[in-house]
UniProtKB/TrEMBL annotation:
UniProt-annotated location(s): Mitochondrion intermembrane space
Pathway terms, separated by semicolons: Sulfur metabolism; Energy metabolism; sulfur metabolism
Residue ranges occupied by any Cytochrome b5 heme-binding domain in the UniProt entry: 1-73
GO cellular component terms given for this protein: mitochondrial intermembrane space
Its job: Catalyzes the oxidation of sulfite to sulfate, the terminal reaction in the oxidative degradation of sulfur-containing amino acids.
CDD domains: eukary_SO_Moco (cd02111)
InterPro entries: Cyt_B5-like_heme/steroid-bd, Cyt_B5-like_heme/steroid_sf, Cyt_B5_heme-BS, Ig_E-set, MoCF_OxRdtse_dimer, Mopterin_OxRdtase_euk, OxRdtase_Mopterin-bd_dom, OxRdtase_Mopterin-bd_sf
Entry EC no(s): 1.8.3.1
Assembly and oligomerization: Homodimer.
One of the GO BP terms on file: sulfur compound metabolic process
Catalytic activity: sulfite + O2 + H2O = sulfate + H2O2
UniProt name for this protein: Sulfite oxidase
Family, per entry: Belongs to the cytochrome b5 family.
Amino acid sequence: AASSPNDNSEVSSWVTFKGEIFDITDFVGLHPGGNKIMLAAGGALEPFWALYAVHSQEHVLEILSQYKVGELSAEDQLEKSYNDDVSDPYAWDPQRHPALVVNSLKPFNAEPPPEILTEDPITPNTFFFKRNHLPVPHVDPDSYKLEISGTGLPDTLTLTLDDLKTKFAKHTVTATLQCAGNRRSEMNKVKTVKGLEWGRGAISTARWGGVRLRDVLLHAGYKPDSCSLVQHVQFEGLDKDVTGTSYGASIPLHKALSEDGDVLLAYEMNGEVLPLDHGFPLRVVVPGVVGARNVKWLGKIILSAEESQSHWQQNDYKGFSPSVDWDTVDFSSAPAIQELPIQSAITEPEDGAILEKDSDMLTIKGYAWSGGGREVVRVDVSLDGGKTWCVAELRSAEGEEARPLGKAWAWKLWELSVPFPPDMNQLDIVCKAVDNSYNTQPDTVAPIWNLRGVLCNAWHRVRVTVTTH
C-alpha cells in the first residue's frame, strides 16, 4: 500500500515515479501538455516519460519533487516493477548518420549540417532532415494493409503494399518538404518560443516514387460530383503513443483530388525503398504543403466533412500574432498551416565565420523555396545588411528547370560569387527570395514572432569577419 500524509485519493490525482508518490492535482492546470498528464493518473509516469525525453531534464524533476506525498511500499514496488517492465518504445528506431545535428533523441529529430544541404538539389536520404513526433513503428511490409474509408465511399477498402505497386500507375514527383519550425532558433533570439531548436536545416528535397492519392480514392469508389459533404482527407499514421493515439493530419479534398496537386502515397525515396525514418513502407507526400501534413507510416485514409481532430491538426502548427501568449492563445481561432510562405537561407558561409581573403572572390550559397507550387524567380543577396543588393544565380534539380505554372514543388539552390568589398572587414550578409506571385520575405523576425516559433521566413542574416594574410 502507498504511505501518504493524507488520504484524499478519491478526489486527488496521484502518480508514481521511481517508487515515490506524487499528488499532481494542483499541477494539472500548469502542465504544458494540458490534460494529457491525466492519462498517467493512478499509475506510473515512466512509460510516458520514455516517450518524451524532455521530462528527464533536471528542472522537470525539481518541479515534480514539490508534489511528493509518499512512497510505495516494498510490496508495491515489486508489483510495480513487474507491471511496468515494458520494452523501449524506441527499440525500432534506425541508426542515423553522426553528422546530423540532433535536436531531440527521443523522439528523434535532426537536421543536416547546412553546407551539406546545398551540395546538390536532391538531398541524400541519409541527410534528409528527420522529424519524428513518436517512436518509429515496426511494420512488416508483407502483412501491411492500408485502410481507406469515410463519407462518400461505398465500403471500406483495404490495400496491401503489393496492391499499390501492381494495381496503380507509378508516378515520380520531386518535392521539397519543410518543417513548420524551420529556423525557429532565430525566433528564440527575439523571445522564447515552444518547440525544437531548429536551425535552417529542417528542409530537404527528394524524388518521391509512388501512386497518386487521387487514383486510389477514385479506385475506392469516391465520385467527386456525388458527395458535397466531403471537404477533407484525413491521414493516420502507424506511429502511436503509449495510449494508442496515432499521429494524424489532414489536407483539403481539393488538393487530394487535383490532377495538378501531385499528392502521392510514396513507397520510394530517391530511387530507394522508403527509409524507416521517412515512413516505411508508405507515407503521404503533399507537395507545396507543410511537412506536418505529410504523414509517415500511413495506416488509414479517411474522407470526412471535418479536418483531422488530432492534436497536431487542431492544437499545433498554427500561426498567431506576436501579442498572443500561452495565457491568451485560442488554437481554434487560427487555421491549420497548409501551404508555406516564401523562404530562403544562407548555408555558406556560417554565421560568425572568419574568412581569409586569399582570393579576390567571395562565394555565398543557399536555398530558396515557396509553398503552394509557386516558383522562386529571384534571390537577392546583400553584403551590407540590405543597403545594396546583388542577384544570385539559381539552380534547379535536373528535370525541374521548367515546371508548369503552380507545380514548382522543389526548391532552387542559389549561389553568388562577388569580389570582396574593399575596406570592409565586417560583412552583414543577407538574403531574400521572391516567387512568381511576387511574394517576398519580411526583413526582420520580430513582427512575425509567434509563441510556437513557426513560419519563420524573415531575411536570413550571416555576419562574418574578413581577414588578410
